[in-house]
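Attaching the record inline, Q. Sequence:
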Amino acid sequence: MAEQKSRAKAKLRPVYVVDGSRTPFLKAKGQPGPFSAADLAVGAGRPLLARQPFGPDAFDEVILGCVMPGPDEANIARVVALRLGCGKKVPAWTVQRNCASGMQALDCAWYHIATGRSELVLAGGTEAMSRAPVLWDLDMVAWLGQWNAAKTLGQRLKALGRLRPGHLKPVIGLLRGLTDPVVGLSMGQTAENLAWRFGIDRQAMDEFALRSHQRLARAQDEGWLEEIETLYDGAGHFYDRDDGLRRDTTLEKLGRLKPVFDRPFGQVTAGNSAQVTDGAALLILASEEAVTRHDLSVLGCIEDCQWAGVDPAEMGLGPVHAVAQLLKRQRLAMDRVDYWEINEAFAAQVLAVLAAWADKDYCREELGRRTPLGEIDPERLNVDGGGISLGHPVGASGARIVLHLLHVLRRNQARRGIATLCIGGGQGGAMLVTRDKD
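Structure, as predicted:
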């Protein structure tokens, strides 16, 4: 909070997004996907850097968000930077803020450029959720320690006598990572809490989910996802679009799905939740000096970023608070924002955010406002689908929604947008971007 207040007082330089790209988001299908998190980031970065008028070694730093890098990807940003040819002299570092890790990377890059520390930064996020680790519990780890310490046949036989079938039960890292360790609730259970608090029914959730798929299908058909770069694996296959899209889904099909997180009475299902997905998104941020020096085109500007904390049991309300604080500092009304991206962690979560902004009691009691914050035109929110239809690779989504929002602004000749998302652990992030109308 102190840093955010100091930002408001400091005279910050303008920060431009000059280009960006992402991979297709590939749905996890019960086994490790074809690409590691580093592979995904390199796949997004190579074509992005190849079309720039400067070399990869021109960056002042590389910053990536990632929640679950593999064991061979320690400080994954450095691994990716070296594989992209940035060279040994370009420093690189990794950030982790759960679902907002990609946005956190952009925030760090923005602030370093705005304050004069850097001129040109490659930033974004990546995640291979299908490759989340499978672990042993502490009892098995302790037994392995005993086994490795055994030197004689007798000691090894004694250690084998202590091995129990329960030791062999694996710990699914992804499920543990999607459960809050403080309140003991899975992310889906926190969405159920929001549905109950704001009276959001199953019909509304499924209608929202259906709309997400319909909008992604339209975007693919119209060629509106121009930021996607095709991936190629070692077996000669290519991946050129988000493959979680279900074009044939209907309200009837969605309505037949069983609740996942609160059986049998819950309303949150696999169909109205974000998909477990692999993907990466990278953006190039530059100062005015770098734009001039390299004669770069400009996609838009990052104006500000805000973070907020909420009850972890209602983590989905994070965007409510982050956006409220951002708008207040920028002296903006909600209707002055042309387009919105709210990451679709769950349909219930997005609908709860919209309900809270329009609820006078919530705004008075939780935000300290005399009046509701306002409402968003559904035709200006997630216009090309979101996490429910294209997936939510947790380290990458924060960067994806910012990049895509800038493309939406350009496509619609619009001026201002806000990208926001909830964060496991009870936080929210929001980023304000602008672009000059062409």
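The mean pLDDT is 94. The first strand starts at residue 15 and ends at 22.

More tomorrow.
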